[in-house]
């Protein structure tokens, strides 16, 4: 399973890539594996000492019992501390945007390339 942000290469120029884990619920993982993720309009934002994926849409898993499911909620990304500090320094210089490139499986985990 690999989901690619087709707008990324059209709208942005790639400088560096980072691999980040995503904090998800079980139903969201199943939905992503079934192809229910859209990252075309998503972006990544650094808030304090944490990184979040914003505006990514994960469709509801049809067998889940979520009455109050939010498909476009902000999801925390997991990066190493050194990577986060590098990103903070680069973003402080200005003129850069963090955007998701692709989402894929790496063993049992779902990773996001930013």
Written overview of the protein:
This protein has 114 residues and is α+β, with helices and mostly antiparallel strands. Helix content is 21%, strand content 31%. The chain contains three helices and nine strands; from the N terminus they run βαβαβββββαββ. It has helices at residues 8-11, 26-33, 81-92; strands at 2-4, 19-22, 37-38, 43-47, 50-54, 57-58, 75-78, 102-106, 109-113. The strands form two sheets. A seven-stranded antiparallel beta sheet has the order 1-8-9-2-7-5-4, with no helix packed on it. The radius of gyration is 14 Å and the shape is globular. The model has no long low-confidence stretch (mean pLDDT 91).
What is the straight-line distance between the termini? 17 Å
Which outline best applies?
globular
CATH arch. level architecture: Beta Barrel
Rg is 14 Å
> Would you list the SSEs in sequence order as H and E?
EHEHEEEEEHEE
Largest sheet: spatial strand order = 1-8-9-2-7-5-4
Beta-strand percentage range: 25-35%
CATH topology: Small Protein B, Chain: A
Major sheet: 7 strands, antiparallel
Which spans of ≥5 residues are poorly predicted at pLDDT below 50?
Answer: none
Looking at CATH, the homologous superfamily is: Small protein B
Would you kindly provide a brief summary of this structure?
This protein is α+β, with helices and mostly antiparallel strands. The protein has one domain: Small protein B (Small Protein B, Chain: A, Beta Barrel). It has three helices and nine strands; from the N terminus they run E-H-E-H-E-E-E-E-E-H-E-E.
